[in-house]
What does this fold into?
Amino acid sequence: MDRKIVLEVKNLGKYFNAIKAIDGVDMKLYENEILAIVGDNGAGKSTLIKTISGVYSKNFGSIYINGKEAEINNALDAKKHGIETVYQDSSVIPLLDASSNIFLGREKIRQNFFGRLFKILDFKYMREETRKVLNKFGIDLKDLDAEVANLSGGQRQSVSIGRAAYWGGKIIILDEPTNNLGVKQENKVMDLIMKLSHDFKVSIIIITHNIDHVFQLVDRIVVLRNGKKVGDVLKKETDKNDVVAMITGVKNIKMNGKT
It folds into this structure.
């Protein structure tokens, strides 16, 4: 049986004046797949995911969700289609605790008369839901009241990913999810990504510069260079040398003593 395509972009383009940030990109994401988008700085990776997630409006091309064309002009449109994005530079508010971050912008109002009238937040509900979602995804956070600034980098990233999954993200986009983390924290975040894909059937797009992590995590690799797609390969059918060669445009790259 053919795998279900949950997200597809066709001939997608985004220009900034004369700069072609992405230029006619075609890409598919399958159900329960982890897909890496790789490329050098300026290749168009961030522009591609920001166009899919509604930060940028496309200049041309089409986006399809579960086979139906979707108009995604802002982040709210993307969320309505089940796309949640975790950016490396703005994932959490450091001065807030985990539950406040998970419900940020989607705060729960008490459902009694005064709660609805005066918009009183239901902190107990949000705290209980936060504990449930962290437990569900195996995120170890002993103090729910701690400001996120006091958590480790891996814990902060886990809270961000947990938030994306909690809000129904069946397609989750992760921008450099292991950036600036120690080895132990990297492994915890990668375990969480694998758990979401394998146990909860979430389709995941990862942008990363870490080729080692690509080959540990993903099923398929899309390579961008100068705004265009130059490669689309199954991980099991390629190796690091070939991927680096596609990224740079230079053949016979030597890695680990091999050519």
Remarks:
- Residues 183-200 form the longest helix (18 residues).
- Residues 14 and 183 are 36 Å apart (CA to CA).
- Confidence is low (pLDDT under 50) at residues 253-259.
- DSSP finds nine helices and ten strands in the chain.
